[in-house]
Design a protein that fits this description.
two-stranded antiparallel ribbon; two-stranded antiparallel sheet; mainly alpha
Length: about 160
């Protein structure tokens, strides 16, 4: 004999409850899978942002270094144009990093009766590496390859071939 509750057979009630529970479990499983997919997508996005941040950081450092070099070149060119005495290493630095600016600064140079003598503005790359690794500077060293010669009365430069 079957037991009926509220006019329905007991087996159909149990079956309906099991079916409802299965649907709920399926919905929960689907939501869990969606959350996992969203988490994976966010992790990928975070990794991409991290890579982009690192690349941007490296690019900014490179641009910062380039700007420092350019500012040094502009100051050296300004000193030459003003007719002041500029150290030979600064002339070489400007020639190496911006030859066009060097040529323009020589062309526009104004002669002075009493030119101001400037200390070296540029940093030698070897000296800078040596300073950063040992904390010492190498002020008096020369590389032995004298390409340029300065006139003592002005910042005129003769190029030797």
């Amino acid at each position: 004999m079957r037991i009926e509750a509220n006019g329905y057979p007991q087996s159909s009630i149990v079956q309906a409850q099991v079916s409802k529970q299965a649907m709920d479990d399926e919905k929960q499983l689907k939501k869990q899978q969606e959350r996992e997919q969203e988490l994976k997508r966010q992790e990928k996005m975070a990794e991409q942002l991290k890579r982009e941040t690192e690349a941007t950081k490296k690019q900014m450092e490179a641009e910062k270094d380039a700007l420092k070099i350019y500012m040094t070149c502009l100051e050296i060119a300004r000193r030459i144009t003003a007719g002041d005495k500029v150290p030979m290493k600064d002339h070489k630095y400007l020639i190496e990093h911006d030859p066009a600016l060097y040529g323009k600064s020589l062309t526009l140079r104004i002669s002075k009766e009493d030119p101001k003598e400037h200390k070296q503005l540029s940093e030698d790359e070897e000296e800078q590496q040596h300073t950063s690794s040992t904390g010492l500077t190498n002020e008096g060293s020369t590389d032995g390859h004298e390409v340029l010669n300065t006139d003592t009365s002005s910042s005129a430069v003769d190029i030797k071939i």
